[in-house]
Amino acid sequence: METLSEAIRRLEDVGYHEAFHATREGLLASPSGKRYAPESMVVEEVLRFEGPSDPADQSALFALRGADGVRGTWVIAFGPPTGALDAEMAHRLKRPR
Predict the structure, then answer these.
(1) Using one digit for the tens of pLDDT, what is the confidence trace for 33-69?
(2) Residue 24: φ, ψ to 5°
(3) Domain ranges of the chain
């Protein structure tokens, strides 16, 4: 089974070089420093992970693509520990059709 760090490395190997973080103004890409409205991002892959020793330690990994071609990953807590800002941004993401 693929771990979170293995999944991030796999995605980086195919061009997902930015790491996104939720801010009140949208998703902040690092290292470029560009900000994106979550509605402008397309979810290309979503993976869920549980901690090896605690199944309640859960996270979700999003592989995102922007209209300008930027690609990156965003990791958030999954389930009840999800912060309000992360939950709002995740809800606003564009789902592929």
Answers:
(1) 999 999 999 999 999 988 665 555 689 999 999 999 9
(2) -60, -25
(3) 4-92
